[in-house]
Specification:
The protein is mainly alpha-helical. Helix 1 packs across helix 2 and helix 2 packs antiparallel against helix 4. It is flat. The relative contact order is 0.12.
Length: about 90
């Protein structure tokens, strides 16, 4: 599988940190840590990280592999986010 050309308008250079991720994965981690888990820990300081939290962060992405996967599965980000909220309500 070839990498996108750096001259491509959609090409994103990977980060230079420990985990070399694309911008979409970096944004998902930012949403997960700064929005989703922050909100969860406001309700419960000891709130563990659950898969539903990761799904909520992933549904914020409008580009990248997660968005394409949801589309291929015939799921909207809103459907997945709603199901994740339902799971968290039961946790």
């Amino acid at each position: 599988m070839s990498k996108p050309s750096s001259s491509s308008p959609d090409a994103v250079e990977p980060s230079s940190g420990l985990y070399k991720t694309q911008a979409s994965a970096q944004e998902m981690m930012r949403v997960l840590t700064h929005e989703v888990m922050l909100a969860a820990q406001k309700q419960d300081e000891a709130a563990p990280l659950l898969s539903a939290h990761v799904l909520l962060a992933a549904t914020a992405a409008r580009r990248g592999v997660t968005a394409r996967t949801l589309q291929a599965l015939g799921l909207s980000p809103e459907q997945v986010a709603s199901a994740a909220h339902d799971v968290l309500a039961l946790a």
